[in-house]
């Protein structure tokens, strides 16, 4: 059967349905079959896998996943694509497409309804770039037993996810993702692989879920507040950012000083110099100060 992603076939489908791309929905469809096959290969998909896809578009990637997987569940926000997908994916009886915003989806409940729980859970997607970070966080926070994720995203976000301490790209997103997953920046995809072409280059990122988070902390809310606050203004010192986050009262300053001294982190350091382990140590030290326990409840 001819691939949906074949540029000729994609054009025909778009014409038949009079489809106009919505830039506001990040609609850049893949028309390069080699790249699609590389994405699916990176997912290492077999009939033992149930796969969630975000944003099937006209089904180019969905089709390739469906040929390998046990089942595919795709979330597409754009109602105009539903009749198109019904047509293009007609032969794939293992695919379900939900006309739903992924960010609104109660993933745990939907997965329990749609999948039998007997297969590995994987996520494979060419993400809509305008909401890459919220989607990543939504997936991570859903607490799903995800075995592997393969996500196409803008190169700049991929670099942030994969960044190490001390680098410019390192930040709260690197920490949020690396806490739960091992990251591998698999390959770069040129703009020419898409219709219409996006303004930026893209990258495929592989995320393999960790059995246990990289660090465990006594107060996760406080850890999240600490990391978010520490990176709020990258040019400022840790001390300034933490005061902005937690308050400038004398008792806050005193507690901050004690905690920073206990873990031997200089107040003049910058957030990007701290490893995830150091953030965890600082969070636990803050959590021993009563004023911070109250703040992070
Ligand atoms: N998978 C297709 C491909 O590779 O050619 C299309 C990928 S395109 C980059 C992103 C898709 O995500 C579009 O079909 C868009 O309508 C859809 N989308 C955008 N925002 C969404 C959201 N919040 N929830 C679900 N789908 C969304």
Low-pLDDT stretches: none
Which class do the helix and strand fractions yield?
Answer: alpha/beta
Number of domains: 2
Text of the CATH class of the largest domain: Alpha Beta
Any ligands, ions or cofactors bound here, and which? S-adenosylmethionine
Tell me the distance between the termini: 56 Å
GO molecular function, one term: RNA binding
Organism: Latilactobacillus graminis DSM 20719
Subcellular location: Cytoplasm
EC number: 2.1.1.182
Question: Care to describe what's here?
Answer:
37% of the residues are buried. It is elongated, with a radius of gyration of 22 Å. It has two domains: 7-209, Vaccinia Virus protein VP39 (Rossmann fold, 3-Layer(aba) Sandwich); 220-295, rRNA adenine dimethylase, C-terminal domain (Helicase, Ruva Protein, domain 3, Orthogonal Bundle), CATH 1.10.8.100. The chain has 297 residues and is α/β, with parallel strands linked by helices. The strands form two sheets. Strands 4-3-2-5-6-9-7 form a seven-stranded mixed β-sheet. Strands 1-8 form a two-stranded antiparallel ribbon. The longest helix is centred in the last third of the chain and has 13 residues, at 250-262. It has helices at 7-16, 33-43, 60-68, 82-88, 107-114, 132-141, 155-161, 172-180, 220-230, 238-246, 250-262, 276-286, 290-295, and strands spanning 29-30, 49-54, 71-75, 95-98, 120-126, 146-154, 181-189, 194-195, 202-209. Bound molecules: S-adenosylmethionine. S-adenosylmethionine binds next to strand 1 and helix 3.
């Amino acid at each position: 059967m001819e691939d949906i992603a074949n540029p000729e076939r994609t054009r025909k489908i778009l014409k038949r349905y009079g489809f106009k791309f919505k830039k506001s929905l990040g609609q850049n469809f893949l028309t390069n079959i080699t790249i699609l096959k590389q994405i699916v290969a990176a997912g290492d998909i077999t009939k033992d896998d149930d796969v969630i896809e975000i944003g099937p578009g006209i089904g180019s990637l969905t089709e390739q996943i469906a040929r390998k997987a046990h089942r595919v569940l795709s979330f597409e926000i754009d109602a105009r694509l539903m009749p198109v997908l019904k047509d293009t994916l007609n032969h794939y009886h293992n695919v379900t497409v939900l006309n739903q915003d992924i960010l609104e989806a109660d993933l745990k409940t939907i997965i329990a309804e749609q999948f039998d729980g007997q297969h590995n859970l994987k996520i494979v997607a060419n993400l809509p770039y305008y909401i890459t970070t919220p989607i990543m966080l939504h997936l991570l926070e859903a607490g799903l037993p995800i075995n592997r994720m393969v996500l196409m995203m803008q190169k700049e976000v991929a670099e942030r996810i994969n960044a190490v301490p001390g680098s410019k790209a390192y930040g709260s997103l690197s920490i949020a993702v690396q806490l739960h997953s091992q990251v591998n920046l698999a390959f770069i995809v040129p703009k020419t692989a898409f219709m219409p072409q996006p303004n930026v280059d893209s990258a495929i990122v592989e995320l393999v879920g960790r059995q246990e988070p990289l660090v465990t902390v006594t107060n996760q809310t406080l850890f999240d507040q600490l990391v978010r606050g520490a990176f709020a203004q990258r040019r400022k010192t840790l001390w300034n950012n933490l005061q902005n986050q937690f308050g400038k009262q004398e008792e806050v300053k005193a507690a901050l000083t004690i905690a920073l001294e206990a873990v031997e982190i200089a107040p003049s350091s910058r957030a990007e110099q701290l490893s995830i382990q150091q953030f965890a140590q600082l969070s636990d030290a803050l959590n021993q100060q009563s004023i911070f326990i109250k703040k992070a409840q």
